[in-house]
Write a structure and sequence with these properties.
The complex is a heterodimer of chains A (1085) and B (475).
Chain A: H1 21-24, H2 28-35, H3 48-62, E1 95-102, E2 107-115, E3 118-124, H4 137-146, E4 155-157, E5 160-162, H5 164-181, E6 186-190, H6 196-208, E7 213-216, H7 223-233, E8 237-241, E9 248-252, H8 263-272, E10 285-290, H9 295-298, E11 302-305, H10 310-322, H11 331-335, H12 342-354, E12 359-363, H13 369-381, E13 389-393, H14 402-410, E14 416-420, H15 424-427, H16 434-438, E15 443-448, E16 460-463, E17 472-475, E18 481-484, H17 497-504, H18 512-524, H19 529-539, E19 549-550, H20 556-565, E20 575-579, H21 593-596, E21 611-613, H22 615-620, E22 645-652, E23 655-663, E24 671-675, E25 705-707, E26 710-718, E27 737-739, H23 740-745, H24 769-772, E28 783-788, H25 797-805, H26 813-817, E29 826-832, E30 839-845, H27 854-858, E31 864-866, E32 872-874, H28 884-888, E33 895-896, H29 914-920, H30 929-938, E34 951-952, H31 958-972, H32 988-992, E35 998-1002, H33 1009-1015, E36 1019-1020, E37 1032-1035, E38 1037-1039, H34 1053-1063, H35 1072-1075
Parallel strand pairs in A: 6-7, 6-14, 9-10, 9-12, 10-11, 14-15, 15-16, 20-24, 21-23, 27-38, 28-37
Antiparallel strand pairs in A: 1-2, 2-3, 4-5, 4-16, 8-13, 13-19, 17-18, 20-25, 21-24, 22-23, 22-26, 28-35, 29-30, 31-32, 33-34, 36-37
Chain B: H1 28-40, H2 47-71, H3 86-110, H4 120-140, H5 145-148, H6 170-203, H7 207-217, H8 224-257, H9 269-295, H10 304-335, H11 338-349, H12 353-365, H13 373-376, H14 379-406, H15 421-444, H16 450-455
Helix pairs in contact in B: 2-15, 3-4, 3-8, 3-9, 3-14, 4-6, 4-15, 6-7, 6-8, 8-9, 9-10, 9-14, 10-11, 11-12, 11-14, 12-14
The chains are: A alpha/beta (1085), B mainly alpha (475).
């Protein structure tokens, strides 16, 4: 579905197109040209002055981009019209290339859109195995990093600039130096990677320098999982959770829908397991045990909040129930310290046991090894291993940890340290004292994407290439080999990891392309290599290359042995939990404005991290959180109105940080949550001044939890900026929720809520224009959208995808503070029920494309009008900016350009400094040309860049609609078959959604998915009583709680709130939406 | 000049006795001298400081507007749910003030309320200047002023793509309503000025003054024929203006009533807005005229009876407004729409409760003091109450606009509006513009309709013992 790349062309006779570059490369002239490493004129790019010049002219050169080296930018000298148009190339028509984004040890297969040589939009590769084209927010935003003006752009030695050639000479020097000693004193510090090429090169180097030592480090560490799997199953395996097959899921602090790796895959599986087509369908049930409020917690049917140290005891206690017969060493001793609701445990265990082979237990990366082992033991006991939990055999890794490297450094065993990526000066645990430790190496060679905190410690610093500039390969989570191919030549001379390693290793082949081809030869076999390689690049993956699945069951003996040794984490009055941030990951996206401005899925805070505590803890600490009020006055409807949040100082292991407090409903009491990734001391213009650095409190011994924190109020107060200030729906049926039983009893319950169900005869005074003027209505296309809130988990991918597709600017912290964020699409988050432990509901909110749009009738200049296909469209040229449309929009989805945000300088995270002033300088404020021109390259040329004073909003990606219509018209020719077929295209938000919660299409087509969804009984319109006939309708969310559980309630909390506020007192009785008759449902038009 | 006379005037029967509209049996000559003298003689000492301060404040507004237009609407405190705040508040506030002028000059004229003559000229001038102040805000509040003013966008003129403005939009109705109102008010004011301009021309001692007053007096000679035509024209214009009193603020209220925002979408708005406008207009007339009456020594022309009558209008309209406030709440409850109910609850008890209760105190409670005659005739107390009326009516618009917008349908988008210094300075600056224009008016044009005031003096009646030209009255 979605954007399908053209099929792989048949072998061609002559070299014609860049995809057959290898064919081209066979000619001696071409090889010679390529051998120069960079085409003529490239040396200009190193000079900062002419680099600026280069960027200026680059936009011009891009107009003619396309051919040249790997289909990228060509040298300026060659700005000539095509004398012969490359086959298949149409100027102005975007092209899609398959590639992949490498992540920690795995990869996201991608299809990247290129406009005349500029990558402009990233999509998931829908054809890759286990992919539906959905990705995550990080992947969507990673394209912005390519055009980051703060990237490392130069080769340096001791901080002063060197040429690439000098640097490479130095690398060869290193290689020669260690040839004699077999690598004694040479150490490599890498990031986790699934790249077969890197693996191969590593092996080659290891063979050449047997004494060289290898270390890997990731601040978000997944080693515990591997370790646990290896112990439990006696071999190196990676468990793969098939959540679509799971009927019951228990998460032990595992945020598989959010902060765990490859969450987009989990979301897909999870959403599949909960899809409801008819009331007869069944769905999975999710139990979550956690300390912070995570995305997974938001989606839980039963959520238990416990202190981080309690998870192990709880897991052990639960395991004793599940493993009733089986005897597991050490379990009872661990379970003994469990203090909590025994009924919760007993009923959960009972429910899991009732669904043997369909119950999955997941342990999160924050939890110690013992929890993971217990989870494996439970999965085995539940019969899920081999069913809903697949085991894939993965190669063992034997690299040392950062701690091992620190020991080696302290023992003066490291002469030369080669650091590939990472930012250890920032992310290393405080006790390693990394900057000083690393300085013990004589030479440090670092490949870095930024000149960041770790830059100063590097003797040689090389600029890293973005993955969209690199040749490479990677393996996805299941081991499928995917290709990484460049869409653009390195903008700032960046080099790839495999090239640097090959050079240091003194290997004969150092060109990344050659390295990857060679690796591919060994992976795919030599038969028909050229064809296979071409197909590999074209498809983006190598079919059937996933890790082999193995059958094994957990070895309870080995687990027991390990458990007997396990120590329960120290419990204390105040525990600290560190967590990966949903916006900036481990800090690598700190300079990414899109992600900085993406609201946290739970808190909705932007541009910083906060110190999260539960309401009860805040009260115990006597914190001030809302306009001078204490948490005592808190009701959940006020949560999020944040002014004057107390600034706290947290002292842990002698280190201190300061941050603003955030009272988070649903947090475990007596727990402080600190997000990693902020408070960078040396970062680009965007990230400067955001949040506090939680890494400085971490220890390598216990990186995720700590106890013994000392909290003091500094007396300062600070405004925390969030995009949603009101947390309660106030009993309004905006998100309509029901329990599964409720839904089965009355499938149309959602339609019975709100005013439209109570005034069924109320209708418009005027005839619908589509009826009174049938000529106004197209009978070919009528666009509509359906959002299934039962599938949406609230991951934010759509928000960033929309931003990327529609050239939506970021506005900065001070402007979000003023409520001027520009996102066309937002995800609303509402709390309901008890403020200490609320239920959460999410709703993607965007333009509803009303047929009788209230915005249209009030615009005095006809700038927002309706088209014949049911779209509510904006004519930016007409807009004078009265903002009346925005006022009259009941969904408040219109966004006004209060300033020229596109021309605004980038350094605007810090509200206190001159950055804000720059914005208010108006025409006097200038954006630096380099920055401005780079960001311009990112823009989607099919979408207008809006100036200030103009209202904008979701257009249902009209550029995609028109593109699809045009190509269908071309295809139709004389046949008049101009209806765009289902699946030919979709909107950016729908395309990125891993859960397939957003479905867009032609509602005139009875067979389209969107038509079918709109016919479901759960379908309803938000504020439908206004009778604006929105084209975007929602499917009610269904929760699936277990009636036997102690926290069971007959209805979701939002439903009860609705009944209490508007229905309960009426003649219908206490649950009137369940009782009264079906309303008269008005047709679409 | 009035001369001593021995003719005894029999007192009218007690039940017909009325306080005269011009006190102390002032003669026609005294009236001309007194009123024309304000614009003719040496500049009063207080005028220059007043003018300089007003002009500086006005300059501040223009500086703010230049900043706003060059940089973006974001220099104001507006945000996403609150797309309108002080801009439209100020617009409605100033437009409302303008209403008193037309009401006094047109409606009271048609109803033969003779007391209007002492205040109508100044009230009409106030109307015009208030419309000028009002007109600025909807223009500058747009994101792209240069397009808003460009023909084919708001001015109904199809552009090359045959796109007309959108006639369903109340904002476009506003353009028509306000421009019609401004035009008719100007014509009405000017027509009424013609005889007085001729007086000024005749009294002028410098060439320049003679020339300019002469040009604008349109060759008025005071001939019977001139008077005949003039009075016809005046009557006609009064007839044309009268519906405008109702229409302009009704249409301004449509900006809100036509929308679907809870708290805006209300059928009571047109009459309620008109009553409020008259209320605020009279408040402003009192605020302006009471000090002028003192500094210019016009106590004999603008008498306590005038003050008292205006106080009665304020009391009546203030009570209507109070009724409307109550009725809004009743309808919100009676209508059974929870969104509507919330909007009104939020108005009174939400984050902007202080604005709501300021409005209620100033608009509903304060004017109730006018039930007492002593209060109505106490110039200082009336002046203070009139200031409260002005404050209250500004808050009324603020409450309607901001509290309705800041919390509407989806709680996720709820927010809070805080003005910036540009908001504040622009608003204060608009008073500078208003005062500058008014001071210039005072300095160059007769502040009170000379000819009309003469017409309501007892001696204007030819049968009056002092009337006509019997006893040497030379006017």
């Amino acid at each position: 579905m979605k954007i399908i790349p053209p099929t792989c062309p048949e072998p061609e006779v002559g070299p014609k197109y860049w995809r057959s570059l290898d064919q081209l490369a066979e000619t001696p002239e071409f090889n010679q040209w390529v051998e120069r490493e960079f085409p003529a004129g490239a040396s200009e790019f190193n000079d900062p002055v002419s680099r600026r010049h280069f960027v200026k002219i680059m936009s011009a050169s891009f107009l003619l981009g396309g051919l040249g080296f790997t289909g990228c930018r060509r040298p300026e000298e060659h700005i000539l019209p095509f004398s012969k148009m490359p086959e298949g190339y149409i100027h102005g028509v975007a092209q899609f290339y398959a590639t992949a984004r490498p992540t920690r040890g795995s990869a996201v297969p991608l299809l990247v859109k290129s406009h005349d040589g500029r990558p402009t939009k990233i999509e998931g590769n829908p054809n890759a195995p286990e992919s539906n084209g959905g990705t995550d927010a990080f992947t969507q935003a990673s394209i912005l990093n390519l055009y980051d003006p703060d990237r490392a752009m130069r080769f340096t030695h001791g901080g002063s600039e060197k040429s690439a050639a000098e640097t490479f000479d130095a690398l060869s020097g290193i290689s020669k130096k260690f040839e004699a000693t077999g690598g004694e004193g040479l150490s490599f510090l890498l990031e986790q990677s699934g790249s077969p090429s890197r693996d191969r090169i590593q092996k080659l180097i290891a063979a050449k320098y047997p004494k060289a030592r290898w270390f890997t480090h990731e601040p978000i560490d997944l080693n515990t999982e591997q370790q646990a799997a290896a112990i439990s199953f006696g071999q190196s395996v990676a468990p793969e959770y098939r959540l679509e097959k799971a009927r019951r899921i228990l998460s032990l602090d595992c945020d598989f829908l959010g902060a765990e790796e490859n969450s987009f895959r989990s979301i897909r599986g999870y959403a599949k397991g909960r899809k409801l087509e008819t009331p007869a369908d069944d769905m999975s049930r999710l139990y979550v045990v956690e300390s912070i409020f995570s995305i997974t917690g938001m989606n839980a049917d039963h959520r238990l909040r416990v202190q981080p140290s309690q998870v192990l005891a709880l897991a052990a206690r639960l395991a004793t129930e599940i493993l009733k017969g089986g005897n597991l060493n050490g379990l009872s001793q661990l379970a003994a310290s469990f203090k909590g609701d025994e009924k919760w445990i007993a009923e959960t265990a009972k429910d899991l046991l009732e669904h043997v082979k369909g119950s999955v237990v997941l342990a999160g990366h924050r939890q110690p090894l013992a929890v993971h082992l217990i989870a494996h033991a439970m999965n085995s006991a539940l019969g899920s291993v081999g069913e809903a939990v697949l085991l894939r055999s993965v190669p063992k890794t034997a690299d040392g940890s950062l701690g091992d490297l620190a020991n080696a450094l302290n023992a003066n065993q490291v002469d030369t340290l080669v650091v590939m990526g990472g930012n250890h000066a920032y992310t290393a645990s405080a006790d390693l004292n990394w900057t000083a430790t690393q300085a013990k190496a004589k030479t440090v060679v670092r490949l870095g994407y930024y000149e960041d905190e770790s830059f100063a410690g590097a003797t040689w610093h090389l600029p890293a290439a973005h993955f969209l500039e690199s040749w490479g390969d990677a393996r996805t989570a299941d081991g499928t080999v995917v290709s990484i191919q460049p869409l653009i030549e390195p903008l700032f001379n960046g080099v790839t990891e495999i090239e640097v390693l090959a050079r240091i290793g003194g290997l004969s082949v150092t060109r990344p392309l050659d390295i990857v081809r060679e690796t591919f030869k060994s992976v795919s076999g030599l038969d028909l290599f050229d064809e296979a390689w071409k197909k590999f690049l074209h498809d983006g993956y190598l079919a059937n290359s996933a890790w082999k699945t193995v059958t094994a069951q957990a070895n309870l003996g080995a687990i027991g042995q390990e458990l007997a040794r396990a120590k329960a984490p120290a419990a204390s009055e105040l525990e600290v939990i560190f967590h990966r941030d949903y916006s900036v990951d481990d800090g690598r996206y700190n300079n990414n404005g899109w992600l900085q401005e993406t609201p946290d899925p739970i808190t909705k805070v932007v541009w910083e991290n906060v110190i999260m505590v539960s309401p009860a803890t805040a009260k115990a600490m006597d914190l001030q959180v809302i306009r001078g009020r204490t948490p005592d006055d808190l009701k959940n409807n006020d949560l999020g109105v944040t002014e004057n949040n107390d600034v706290l100082e947290i002292e842990l292991n002698g280190k201190k940080i300061q941050g603003a407090v955030w009272v988070q409903p649903g947090m475990a009491d007596s727990t402080i949550a600190l997000a990693l990734g902020y408070g960078r001391s040396k970062v680009g213009r965007v990230g400067t001044g955001t949040g506090y650095n939680a890494y400085s409190l971490r220890t390598s011994e216990s990186p995720w939890m700590a106890s013994g924190a000392k909290v003091t109020k500094t007396g300062e107060v600070r405004r925390v900026v969030s995009t949603q200030e009101h947390g309660s729906m106030e009993g309004r049926p905006i998100i309509r929720e029901g329990n599964l039983a409720q839904y089965k009893a009355k499938p149309g319950f959602a339609k019975n809520m709100d005013l439209e169900a109570h005034a069924p005869n109320a209708g418009p005074i005027y005839t619908h224009p589509y009826n009174s003027h049938p000529a106004l209505k197209s009978d070919v296309h009528q666009w509509g959208m359906s959002i299934d809130m039962n599938s949406c988990v609230g991951c934010n991918a759509c928000v960033v995808a929309c931003q990327s597709e529609n050239n939506i600017p970021i506005v900065g912290k001070d402007q979000v503070n003023k409520g001027r964020e520009m996102h066309w699409m937002r995800i609303d988050r509402y709390y309901a029920g008890d403020v200490a432990d609320p239920q959460v509901a999410n709703q993607p909110m965007l333009c509803q494309h009303c047929e009788s749009a209230p915005c249209e009738s009030v615009c005095p200049v006809n700038a927002t009008v309706h088209d014949e296909e049911g779209l509510n469209i904006m004519a930016y040229n007409r807009c004078v900016g009265t903002r009346y449309c925005g006022n009259n929009c009941a969904w408040k989805v219109r966004r006004f350009n209060f300033f020229d945000f596109n021309k605004r300088p980038n350094d605007f995270a810090d509200m206190s400094k001159g950055a804000v002033g720059k914005l208010y300088l108006g025409p006097l404020a200038k954006r630096e040309p380099l920055e401005y021109d780079l960001i311009k390259m990112l823009s989607n040329p099919d979408v207008t860049v809006r100036m200030r004073g103009v209202m904008e909003k979701c257009s249902f990606c009209i550029q995609r609609i028109e593109g699809a219509k045009i190509s269908q018209k071309v295809k139709a020719g004389a046949s008049n078959d101009v209806r765009v077929p289902e699946g030919a295209f979709t909107t950016a938000c729908a395309q990125v959604c891993p859960a397939e919660a957003i479905v867009f299409g032609n509602i005139l087509d009875e067979a389209s998915r969107v038509s079918k969804l709109k016919k479901q009984e759960r379908d309803y319109a938000v504020l439908g009583f206004l009778d604006t006939k929105p084209r975007l309708t929602y499917l009610a969310r269904i929760r699936n709680p277990n009636p036997a559980m102690p926290d069971y309630k007959q209805h979701p909390a939002t439903f009860d709130e609705y009944e209490n506020s508007s229905g309960g007192s009426g003649e219908h009785g206490s649950t009137h939406a369940m009782n009264h008759s079906e309303p008269v449902v008005k047709g679409a038009h | 000049m009035a001369e001593e006379t021995t003719i005894k005037v029999a007192a009218p029967p007690r039940e017909l006795e009325r306080e005269p509209l011009v006190l102390n049996n002032r003669s026609f000559g005294w009236i001309s001298d007194k009123i024309a003298g304000i614009a003719e003689g040496k500049t009063a000492k207080w005028w220059w400081p007043a003018f300089i301060i007003s002009a500086l404040v006005m300059t501040m507004m223009f500086a703010c507007v230049a900043y706003l237009i060059s940089t973006g609407v974001g220099v104001w405190g507006l945000n996403n749910p609150v797309g309108w705040a002080w801009d439209i508040t100020n617009f409605v506030f100033w437009i409302g003030i303008g209403h008193a002028g037309t009401l006094i000059s047109a409606v009271l004229f048609l109803l033969r309320q003779k007391w209007r003559t002492s205040i109508n000229r100044a009230a009409e001038a106030m109307t015009l200047f208030a419309v000028v102040c009002a007109g600025i805000f909807p223009v500058i509040h747009t994101g792209r002023v240069w397009f808003a003013l460009y023909p084919g966008y708001l001015v109904p003129m199809p552009n090359s793509n045959s796109i007309w403005p959108q006639f369903r939009s109340p904002l476009l109705w506003d353009v028509f309503a306000v421009s019609t109102y401004g035009t008719v008010s100007l014509l009405f004011w000017y027509t009424g000025l013609v005889p007085d301009l001729a007086t000024m021309r005749d009294r002028a001692v410098t060439k320049g003054r003679k020339f300019f007053y002469g040009i604008f007096a349109l060759g008025w000679t005071g001939a019977n024929r001139h008077w005949r035509n003039y009075e016809k024209a005046y009557l006609l214009l009064a007839g044309i203006s009268t519906p405008l009193v109702l229409s302009v603020h009704s249409i301004v209220s449509f900006d809100f009533a036509v929308s679907q925002v809870p708290g805006w979408h209300t059928t009571i708005f047109p009459p309620y807005f008109v009553a409020g406008a008259i209320f605020s207009g009279f408040g402003m007339v009192l605020t302006l005229m009471l000090p002028i009456r003192t500094v210019c020594g016009l106590q004999d022309v603008i008498t306590l009876r005038h003050v008292e009558l205006m106080g009665k209008v304020v009391l009546a309209t203030g009570s209507i407004v109070g009724y409307a406030y109550a009725m809004e709440f009743f309808i919100a409850w009676y209508g059974g729409n929870p969104y509507e109910m919330y909007a009104f609850k939020n108005r009174a008890f939400g984050p902007y409760w202080w604005a709501y209760w300021t409005m209620v105190s100033c608009n509903v409670i304060c004017p109730q003091l006018f039930w007492f005659k002593k209060v109505r005739r106490n110039v200082i107390v009336v002046f203070i109450i009139s200031i409260f009326v002005n404050i209250g009516m500004w808050f009324e618009r603020f409450v309607i606009i901001v509290t309705s917008l800041h919390r509407d349908y989806l709680p996720s988008s709820w927010s809070y509006f805080v003005p910036t210094w540009v908001d504040i300075c622009t608003f204060i600056g608009s008073f500078g513009l208003f005062c500058t224009l008014f001071l210039l008016f005072m300095r160059f044009l007769p502040l009170i309709a000379i000819s009309e005031v003469k017409g309501v003096t007892p001696q204007a009646d030819p049968h009056h013992p002092l009337g006509g030209a019997k006893s040497g009255g030379h006017h």
